[in-house]
From TrEMBL:
Example GO BP: aspartate biosynthetic process
Self-association and partners: Homodimer.
Enzyme nomenclature, EC number: 2.6.1.1
One Pfam family hit: Aminotran_1_2
Annotated Gene Ontology cellular component terms: cytosol
Family, per entry: Belongs to the class-I pyridoxal-phosphate-dependent aminotransferase family.
Lineage, top ranks: Eukaryota, Fungi, Dikarya, Ascomycota, Pezizomycotina
Residue ranges constituting the Aminotransferase class I/classII large domain according to the UniProt record: 36-410
UniProt name for this protein: Aspartate aminotransferase
Catalytic activity: L-aspartate + 2-oxoglutarate = oxaloacetate + L-glutamate
Keywords for this protein: Aminotransferase, Pyridoxal phosphate, Transferase
Tagged with keyword Transmembrane helix: no
Organism: Dichotomopilus funicola
Keyword RNA-binding: no
Cofactor field: pyridoxal 5'-phosphate
Length: 419
C-alpha cells in the first residue's frame, strides 16, 4: 500500500534545527536601526572605520594574478596548489624543520580551517587506532563539537578557562589529560584561543606537551590566527613547533581567512606530521601512505579545492618583498586589536567599573572573554544595541576609536546594576 505521507522527511524525522547562534546574532544586528549599534560578535577583522579591510598586499597579489597571461580556471590537483601547501607547512613548522627535510609531512589544501578540521576528523574516524575520544577545551570554537560528532567520534572536554582568574586553568587541564585514556585525541588551539583569547605561556605549553607525551596522546592543532594574534608568525607557531621538535605524530588544521583577510575565498590546509621516532625513511613511508588515503577522502568530499584564494596566498608566500609586506599588514591588524584592548581596559578602570579588567589586555587575538553574564549580555543588546555572544565573548575587531568609550560606559552600567 502506498504511503499517504506527503514527504519522506516528516517533522519527527527531520525536526526544525535551531538557527546558528552567531549567524542569528549577525541577523539581529543588521535588523537593528539604532545609530549607536555595535557589532562585537563578528569574527572578522574591521578597520577603525568599522569596515572590512582588504590587505594592501592582497590587492597587489590580486593585480599580479589578473595580469598573469598563464592564469586559467582549470582544476587544481586533489591535494591542491603545491606552491601554496608547501609554503603553508613551512610557515607552521619552520623552513628548516626536520619533518619537512625528511619528507615526514603531508599537506593537503582544504576549504579553509573548517574544511581542514573536517578532513582531519574524517581521517581519524576512519583510520586512528588509539583511543577514539576527542578532547576539546571547555569552552572551544562551537563548530568543533559538530564537526567531530558528525564523523561519529565521541567527545569529552578538558578544563581550560578559569572563571575566577579569567585566565588558563592549567592545573585542571593537565589533570584531565593525565586521567584520559592513553592515546586520546587532544584538540589544541595553537594561538589566540577561540573564544577566550587565553593562551598557555611557552612554559605551560612545555608542561602540556610533557603530559601528552607520557600518555601517548595525539595532538590535533587548530590554527586560525597565526601572525594575527601577536603580529609575529614565528611566535604564534611556537606551540606547534615545540610539539614537532618533541617528535610527536600530529595533525594541524590551518586557516588563511583571518591572517590574509581571505574569508570568503576559503583558503586553508590540513597537515599531517609523522613521528620523528620512526626514522626518516619510515617516516616518509608513513607520510606517503597517509597522503594516499587523504587524497581518496578529499576526492569523495570536494574532488578539487578552490583555486583563487590559494593563488593569492601563494603569490605572497613565495615572494620575499610581498611576504615582508604581509608581515607588516599583520602587525597593523594585530596592533589595532592590541590598542583596542588597552583602550577598553583603560576606560573601564577610569570609570572604576567593579571587578578586575586586566584580563582584557592579558588575553590575545581577536576575542576576549569579558566575564559578563548572560543577563548582562542581553541587557547590553536591548538597552544599548551592543551585540555579543551570550557567553560574554566579544570580538575586539568590533571596537574602534569612535565606539570604545560608549561600549565601556555601557559595560560599566550593566555591571553596576548587577551589584
Amino acid at each position: 500500500m502506498a504511503s499517504t505521507s506527503i514527504t519522506s522527511f516528516p517533522a519527527d524525522a527531520v525536526p526544525q534545527a535551531p538557527e546558528d547562534p552567531l549567524f542569528g546574532l549577525s541577523r539581529a544586528y543588521k535588523a537593528d536601526t539604532s545609530p549607536d549599534k555595535v557589532d562585537l560578535g563578528i569574527g572578522a577583522y574591521r578597520d577603525d572605520n568599522a569596515k572590512p579591510w582588504v590587505l594592501p598586499v592582497v590587492k597587489k597579489a590580486d593585480e599580479i594574478l589578473r595580469n598573469d597571461p598563464e592564469a586559467n580556471h582549470e582544476y587544481l590537483p586533489i591535494a591542491g596548489l603545491q606552491a601554496f601547501t608547501s609554503r603553508a607547512a613551512e610557515l607552521l613548522l619552520g623552513k628548516s624543520a626536520p619533518a619537512i627535510a625528511e619528507k615526514r609531512t603531508v599537506s593537503v589544501q582544504s576549504i579553509s580551517g573548517t574544511g581542514a578540521v573536517h578532513l582531519g576528523a574524517l581521517f581519524l574516524a576512519k583510520f586512528y587506532k588509539g583511543s577514539r575520544t576527542v578532547y576539546l577545551s571547555n569552552p572551544t570554537w562551537a563548530n568543533h563539537h559538530q564537526i567531530f560528532s558528525n564523523v561519529g567520534l565521541p567527545i569529552a572536554t578538558y578544563p581550560y578557562f578559569s572563571k575566577e582568574t579569567r585566565g588558563l586553568d592549567v592545573d585542571g587541564l593537565k589533570a584531565t589529560l593525565e586521567k584520559a585514556d592513553e592515546g586520546s585525541i587532544i584538540v589544541l588551539h595553537a594561538c589566540a584561543h577561540n573564544p577566550t583569547g587565553v593562551d598557555p605561556t611557552p612554559e605551560q605549553w612545555r608542561e602540556i606537551a610533557s603530559v601528552m607525551k607520557a600518555k601517548k596522546h595525539f595532538p590535533f592543532f587548530d590554527t586560525a590566527y597565526q601572525g594575527f594574534a601577536s603580529g609575529d608568525l614565528d611566535r604564534d607557531a611556537g606551540a606547534i613547533r615545540h610539539f614537532a621538535e618533541e617528535g610527536f605524530e600530529l595533525v594541524i588544521a590551518q586557516s588563511f581567512a583571518k591572517n590574509f583577510g581571505l574569508y570568503g575565498q576559503r583558503a586553508g590546509c590540513f597537515h599531517y606530521v609523522a613521528p620523528s621516532g620512526a626514522g626518516a625513511a619510515e617516516g616518509a613511508n608513513i607520510a606517503t601512505r597517509v597522503s594516499s588515503q587523504l587524497s581518496i577522502l578529499q576526492r569523495s568530499e570536494i574532488s578539487n579545492p578552490p583555486i583563487y584564494g590559494a593563488r593569492i596566498a601563494s603569490i605572497v608566500l613565495n615572494d620575499d618583498a610581498l611576504f615582508a609586506e604581509w608581515q607588516e599588514n599583520l602587525r597593523t591588524m594585530s596592533g589595532r586589536i592590541i590598542d583596542m584592548r588597552k583602550k577598553l581596559r583603560a576606560k573601564l578602570e577610569e570609570l572604576q567599573t567593579p571587578g578586575g579588567w586586566n584580563h582584557i589586555t592579558d588575553q590575545i587575538g581577536m576575542f576576549s572573554f569579558t566575564g559578563l553574564s548572560e543577563p548582562q549580555v542581553l541587557k547590553l543588546r536591548t538597552d544599548y544595541h551592543i551585540y555579543m555572544t551570550k557567553n560574554g565573548r566579544i570580538s575586539m575587531a568590533g571596537l574602534n576609536s569612535r565606539n570604545v568609550e560608549y561600549v565601556a560606559a555601557a559595560f560599566d552600567k550593566v555591571v553596576r546594576e548587577a551589584q
